[in-house]
Design goal:
Helices cover 46% and strands 12% of the residues. The protein is globular, with a radius of gyration of 21 Å. The protein contains nine helices and eight strands. The strands form three sheets. The protein has a three-stranded antiparallel β-sheet with strand order 2-1-8. Strands 3-7-6 form a three-stranded antiparallel β-sheet. A two-stranded antiparallel ribbon has the order 4-5. By secondary structure, it is α+β, with helices and mostly antiparallel strands. α3 crosses α7, α5 crosses α6 and α8 packs across α9. It starts with 6 loop residues before the first strand and ends with a helix. It folds into two domains: 75 residues, no CATH class; 125 residues, Arc Repressor Mutant, subunit A (Orthogonal Bundle). About 10% of the residues have low confidence. A hairpin with a 7-residue loop joins β4 and β5.
Length: 243
């Protein structure tokens, strides 16, 4: 684990050394009650492991999670993520808008405006979190570099008619999956039900990023509640009235 950025949970056991370190610093109780362990056994055969994002991926994640994304922005990220996963070329705003129109059942022109607004919003978010925004050499002033924060998330290419086309970078793809809790089909964990059991499998394990401190608190709560990590989060949400 590193303090550089958020971590991603996956279904594997924590290494003994990591558990000992958490106990040593008070994040996990050193001697859970045997009676309680017997009364409330874990509902899963494993605990969670932590895989840290790189510094840049963590900064992109921070941009996307600093405040809630609206449903149009989430849909745009899903579209770009699925396109990158499928190995598609960069998408024009017109094509991204067409897919957004299908996803939201809105007119194509309105969806294109939504797409442009989402791209501007992503750029503003990234400008607030990136320590070193990517630079692009300007054609009008050779040798001058213009900082374009959006380039950390999306590579920008020029289409055959001079239009801008966008494709998620590798760092962007990783950060988006961590920010949205994307399924293998590229649907955000908060997505509306599609009525397709293969896509709407509520038990499917997704990757979701969080800060190291938040992860440590959850692991401590898991040990105290003697449940699987998933069941612990659901129980805590239910107690807060959000479950």
């Amino acid at each position: 684990m590193t303090p550089d950025g958020p971590s991603i949970f996956i279904g594997k056991a924590l290494p003994p050394a990591a558990v000992e370190l958490l106990v040593e610093h008070g994040f996990l109780p050193s001697d859970p009650s045997p009676a309680r362990l017997k009364a409330t056994p874990s509902t899963s055969g494993h605990e969670a492991n932590l895989h840290p994002l790189t510094a840049v991926q963590g900064q992109i994640w921070a941009a996307l999670t600093a405040r809630a994304l609206n449903h149009r922005q989430v849909a745009m990220l899903e579209i770009y993520w699925r396109a990158r996963l499928a190995g598609e070329p960069a998408l024009s705003v017109n094509e991204a808008g067409r897919r957004l129109a299908e996803a939201l059942s809105v007119p194509h022109g309105e969806a294109c405006n939504f797409a442009k607004g989402a791209l501007r919003s992503f750029g503003r978010r990234l400008a607030q979190t990136l320590q070193r925004p990517p630079a692009n050499l300007g054609n009008d002033n050779p040798g001058a570099a213009n900082e374009i924060p959006l380039l950390a998330l999306l590579a920008i290419e020029t289409g055959p008619h001079g239009e801008s086309r966008h494709r998620l970078t590798y760092d962007g793809m990783t950060a988006v999956a961590a920010a949205l809790g994307l399924t293998a089909h590229g649907a955000a964990a908060t997505g509306v039900s599609t009525a397709d059991s293969a896509i709407d499998d509520l038990d499917e394990v997704v990757l979701l990023g969080m800060s190291r401190l938040s992860a440590a608190v959850l692991l401590r709560a898991q040990r105290s509640m003697c449940l699987s990590l998933d069941a612990t989060i659901k129980a805590m949400a239910a107690r807060a009235g959000a479950g």
